[in-house]
């Protein structure tokens, strides 16, 4: 494997984890049953619930993104062993 593929794998690890958590499993499994129950309470309740979930998700992911961007320099050297082993792969 080359330097480019190692950098891609290091950069892709955290977004892939967030996609697994938010898009595939936890949020979907929790959101659908509660939205179905809110649908029975009325259209206004359903819209309010969906809006609250969207706003909370946007704020959470936004904060995680900002924190990740602020602390970016230490990650490549500390999260991937390939970067520690090879000096030419360090930033």
Feature tags:
single chain, 91 residues, mainly alpha, 0% strand, elongated
How does the SSE layout of this entry go?
Elements: H1 3-41, H2 43-70, H3 75-79, H4 81-85
Description:
The protein is mainly α. Helix content is 85%, strand content 0%. The protein has helices at residues 3-41, 43-70, 75-79, 81-85. Helix 1 (3-41) runs antiparallel to helix 2. The longest helix has 39 residues, at 3-41.
Helix and strand sequence: HHHH
Catalogue the unreliable spans: none
**Count of helix runs:** 4
Mean pLDDT: 76
Count of DSSP E strands? Answer: 0
Q: How far apart are the termini?
A: 17 Å
Write a short abstract of this structure.
The protein is mostly helical and 91 residues long. It has helices spanning 3-41, 43-70, 75-79, 81-85.
């Amino acid at each position: 494997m080359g330097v480019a593929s190692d950098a891609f794998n290091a950069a892709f690890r955290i977004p892939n984890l967030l996609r697994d958590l938010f898009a595939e499993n936890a949020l979907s499994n929790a959101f659908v049953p509660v939205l179905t129950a809110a649908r029975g309470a009325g259209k206004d309740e359903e819209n309010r619930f969906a809006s609250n979930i969207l706003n909370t998700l946007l704020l959470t992911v936004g904060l995680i993104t900002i924190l990740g961007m602020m602390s970016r320099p230490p990650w490549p050297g500390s999260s991937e062993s390939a970067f520690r082993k090879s000096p030419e792969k360090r930033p």
